[in-house]
Design a protein that fits this description.
This protein is mainly alpha-helical. Helices cover 59% and strands 6% of the residues. The chain has nine helices and three strands. The chain has helices at residues 2-18, 27-39, 49-59, 64-75, 87-97, 99-102, 110-120, 131-139, 147-157; strands spanning 77-79, 82-86, 128-129. The chain has a three-stranded antiparallel β-sheet. The longest helix has 17 residues, at 2-18. The chain is globular and about 50 Å long. It comes from Tyrannus savana (Fork-tailed flycatcher). Residues 65-154 form the EF-hand domain. InterPro entries: EF-hand-dom_pair (IPR011992), EF-hand_dom_typ2 (IPR015154), KCMF1/Dystrophin (IPR050774).
């Protein structure tokens, strides 16, 4: 927890420097509380760095493609000159990401994760997939992660402005 808090403190200090007045001074504390609520429900005092990173990536303002690539980088394993994501790593990623909607009562069952994993690996003979296959599957907006592109689209529309007059 302390390591994550230090990381968050640095992250939000940098954000406050880049966008003065737009970042709450307690942002690191609030974010840590959210991560603890999502990933330490039993009160062990431990949150996996990879789980915290997945949540921060998912909740960031970056593009969907950038988020998807970052997920791959965090969960993939090197295999020679390429990185691959295994079924087990995909299950971990989906389980970690599903803690985000679960915090607001929109949880998904373990079978949802299994169905999504099976769907991603449909027709794949190997035990792992390359980044392009992973990205292609995510672009198809699997039901287990439908909240992610939906939230992205909602946040993207916040900045839209047009010159039309409404009556």
């Amino acid at each position: 927890m302390q390591q994550i808090f230090r990381m968050l403190t640095k992250l939000f200090q940098r954000a406050r420097f880049e966008k003065p007045g737009q970042v709450d001074p307690r942002a690191a504390e609030f974010t840590l509380s959210l991560l603890v609520a999502m990933y330490d429900r039993s009160g062990t005092g431990y949150v996996k760095i990879r789980s915290a990173a997945a949540a921060l990536i998912a909740l960031s303002g970056d593009t969907l493609l950038a988020k998807y690539r970052a997920f791959f980088q965090f969960y993939a394993v090197p295999d020679g000159k390429v990185a691959l994501i295994t079924r087990s790593a995909l299950r971990s990623l989906l389980t970690d990401l599903n803690q985000i909607p679960a915090i607001v009562g929109e949880s998904c069952t373990l079978s949802c994760v299994e169905i999504a994993t099976h769907d991603c690996f449909h027709g794949v003979l190997n035990s792992a997939i390359v980044e392009e296959k992973f990205l292609s599957w995510l672009r198809s907006e699997p039901a287990v992660l439908l909240w992610l592109p939906t939230c992205y689209r909602l946040s993207a529309t916040e900045m839209v402005s047009h010159q039309a007059r409404c009556r």
